Amino acid sequence: MNYILLCLTIIATPSYYIIRNYLSKKCVRNKSDFYYLNTIFSIVSTIALVIVAAVTKASLPSAYTVVMGLLFGVLTALVTIFNMYALECGPMSYTSLIMTAAMIFPALSGYFFFSESLGTFKITGMIIMLFSLFLSVYNKNGNEKKANKKWFVFSILTMICNGSIGIMQKIHQSSVHRGELLYFLIIAFVFSAVYSFICLLFFEKNKKFTAKPHKIFSPVFWLTVLSGFLIAVSNLINLYLSGVMNSIIFFPILNGANLFILIFASSVLFKEKLSLTKWIGIIIGCAAIALLCL
Fold first, then answer.
1. Which of 68, 96, 111, 288 could share a disulfide with 118, CB 3.0–4.6 Å?
2. What is the pLDDT of residues 245-276, one digit of tens each?
3. How far apart are the C-alpha atoms of 223 and 204, rounded to whole Å?
4. What region does 57 belong to: left with phi over 0, alpha with psi -120 to 50, or beta?
5. Quick one: pLDDT band at residue 200, thresholds 50, 70, 90?
6. Which residues of 268-292 are buried (b: 16+ CB within 10 A; e: fewer)?
């Protein structure tokens, strides 16, 4: 059963990332659009998880889970917004690589706070990843430096927030309240929806940043809904599997498969053309990810 769930999350995770990339590049006109899309993502994810909680008759959350869920919601909203900003002006392949590199942070937290061994492989992987990040911003073309800098900043912010999410998952699933994972996620997505909606209202005051709501029967609207559903599915499965599967099996398969699918999709679906330097950086980054998983 665990391996069936693993296959489902390997399909769901890159799928919503591919949809997010499409929406960021094709449908976003200004800042309001980012928050409009994330509001829909979060509302759909909340509804999907509430249905699961109702069907499974999950017990109400403790105060600990409520507080952790709110903090998790802050990071969930930020990682989505920062990621969409990065995808708007940069390549999906390298953006997904940097986002995957976020596992550096849970690895360091395990060493400093959970008495876990860091190991030669992880240390080597971190050093190699730093070199890969350097190659991602190496650019001979002066006219591209501004866009490249903006993309890199938002990619790094995405990585930091995504890594912090991994740390929070580790903290919650190491506590006595690990069985409250459904409400942990529900609270997080409710907060993400409220936060994004407030930001949307704030930017709506400025006519230059007015969002363009999509008709309920439009393909873009249903892509947004599908993405929100897939986000809920992948978060729920990943949080569950991180507590029941051996880490040395779960994380390498999940991260490796997702990264391969996204890099393949960036070339085939989105026709991304990267410089030789960036392709070398991606190959080196993939090697670093493999070392971090060991």
1. 111
2. 766 567 667 777 888 888 888 888 888 777 78
3. 23
4. left
5. confident
6. eeeebebeeebeebbebbbebbbbb
